[in-house]
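Forgive a beginner's question, but would it be possible to get any protein sequence you like and the tokens describing how it folds?
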Amino acid sequence: MELRCSTCGKKLISEDKFVKFSCPSCGKETIVRCKTCRTLGRNYVCKECGFKGP
């Protein structure tokens, strides 16, 4: 499975400072965030429950 940032869609094959975690609301969706989106506080949306987070 190819990892992509949940916010910007960037491929994270060679990225070293990304995070991967379950949705804090439903726990069903895996959220993946690249270093840039984390640093800038860009929002992500859970595809399962619609939860929005920074």
